[in-house]
């Protein structure tokens, strides 16, 4: 039995790539090419901080005061972001996930868990995440099925950080193909969705400079042949890293504070978070999925490291 804070460790390998998936939260702890970090993860003996690589369901980001109404019933969730009095990043980050399947050479595996009712949450969902490595990088497919007897609200988000290694934060070149951004209040709860401002407009790739982002974007232009959008983190020694999102992932959060040149707890990185909905969707309804009994939702995103080019 593993004594790691993140539980059992399952390693994927394909060519020069290696990744570690963990039991606690079912998330992505490490991803490297030739031993160099692609994602800013955490060590096996460390506790996961700042959502690094975690799976965010049945909602990403925040629910104001942990309160929402659904199906005519008021719900109160536990508050997990105490300074801002919000419930943050769902209910499965610390649940145990089981290894369900892996292929013969361990270049692909699936983990799964069941989310049962708990205070503030009345649904029953079967959840699975499939991680696959190929010559282009890592793809992650997520599946959520309502196995309960009543409708359930649902949203999904992923929380990978692209590792910066020796690149200064100001020198990182970002490309974000989004026409609109979510504006938030002092508690990071959305107020409006508006056209991107000059300081948050990265539709043309440019250095981050002094800009600090903790920003959700939408109206994403899907330029890949498979219909996905992609955010490019460039200016890195190992080449550009592309984080992409497929159908149903119509929002992306970009968070730069953990990429600061000093004072960061853990490996420096910029979070690029594919999401099916923005923060507080259980109240606003923006991007919210309602899963009827027997219905399911799926989404796929991935990371294409420049080192593979």
Count up the helices: 1
Query: What is the radius of gyration?
Result: 18 Å
Q: Looking at the chains present, what oligomeric state does this protein adopt?
A: single chain
Q: Roughly what percent helix? A: under 10%
Largest sheet: 9 strands, antiparallel
Strand order of the largest sheet: 10-11-12-13-27-23-22-17-20
The CATH topology is: Beta-galactosidase, Chain A, domain 5
CATH architecture: Distorted Sandwich
Number of strands: 27
Write down the overall geometry: globular
Top CATH class: Mainly Beta
Structural class: mainly beta
Order of helices and strands: EEEEEEEEEEEEEEEEEEEEEEEEEHEE
* Mean pLDDT figure: 97
Distance N terminus to C terminus? 38 Å
Brief summary:
The chain is mainly β. The protein has one helix at residues 281-284, and strands at residues 9-14, 17-22, 28-33, 36-37, 55-56, 62-64, 67-70, 73-76, 86-88, 98-102, 108-115, 125-134, 137-146, 152-154, 157-158, 161-163, 173-175, 178-184, 190-195, 206-207, 214-220, 229-234, 241-245, 251-255, 269-275, 289-291, 296-304. Strand 2 and strand 3 form a beta hairpin.
Defining key terms:
309 residues; mainly beta; Beta-galactosidase, Chain A, domain 5; 9-stranded antiparallel beta sheet; 1 helix; globular; isomerase activity; Aldose_1/G6P_1-epimerase; carbohydrate binding; YihR-like; Gal_mutarotase_sf_dom
List the helices and strands and how they pair.
Blueprint: E1 9-14, E2 17-22, E3 28-33, E4 36-37, E5 55-56, E6 62-64, E7 67-70, E8 73-76, E9 86-88, E10 98-102, E11 108-115, E12 125-134, E13 137-146, E14 152-154, E15 157-158, E16 161-163, E17 173-175, E18 178-184, E19 190-195, E20 206-207, E21 214-220, E22 229-234, E23 241-245, E24 251-255, E25 269-275, H1 281-284, E26 289-291, E27 296-304
Antiparallel strand pairs: 1-2, 2-3, 3-4, 5-15, 6-9, 7-8, 10-11, 11-12, 12-13, 13-27, 14-26, 16-25, 17-20, 17-22, 18-19, 18-21, 21-24, 22-23, 23-27, 24-25
């Amino acid at each position: 039995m593993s004594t790691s804070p993140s539980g059992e460790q399952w390693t994927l390998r394909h060519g020069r790539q290696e990744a570690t998936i963990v039991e606690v939260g079912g998330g992505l702890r490490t991803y490297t090419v030739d031993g160099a970090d692609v994602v800013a993860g955490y060590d096996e003996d460390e506790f996961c901080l700042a959502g690094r690589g975690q799976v965010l369901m049945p909602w990403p980001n925040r629910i104001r005061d942990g309160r929402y109404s659904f199906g005519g019933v008021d719900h109160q969730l536990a508050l997990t972001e105490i300074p801002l009095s919000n419930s943050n990043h769902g209910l499965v980050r610390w649940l145990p996930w089981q290894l369900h399947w892996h292929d013969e050479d361990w270049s692909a595996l699936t983990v799964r868990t069941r989310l049962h009712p708990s205070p503030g949450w009345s649904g029953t969902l079967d959840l699975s995440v499939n991680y696959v490595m190929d010559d282009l990088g890592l793809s992650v497919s997520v599946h959520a099925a309502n196995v309960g007897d009543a409708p359930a609200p649902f949203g999904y988000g992923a929380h990978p950080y692209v590792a910066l290694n020796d690149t200064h934060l100001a020198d990182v070149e970002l490309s974000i193909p989004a026409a609109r951004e979510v504006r938030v209040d002092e508690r990071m709860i959305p107020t409006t969705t508006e056209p991107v401002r000059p300081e948050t407009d990265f539709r043309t790739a440019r250095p981050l400079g002094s800009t600090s982002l903790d920003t959700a974007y939408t109206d994403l232009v899907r330029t890949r042949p498979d219909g996905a959008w992609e955010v490019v983190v460039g200016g890195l020694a190992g080449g550009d890293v592309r984080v992409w999102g497929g159908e149903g992932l119509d929002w992306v959060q970009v968070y730069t504070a953990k990429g600061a040149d000093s004072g960061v707890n853990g490996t420096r990185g910029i979070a690029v978070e594919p999401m099916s909905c923005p923060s507080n969707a259980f109240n606003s309804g923006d991007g919210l999925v309602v899963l009827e009994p027997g219905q399911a939702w799926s989404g796929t995103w991935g990371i294409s490291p420049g080192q593979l080019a």
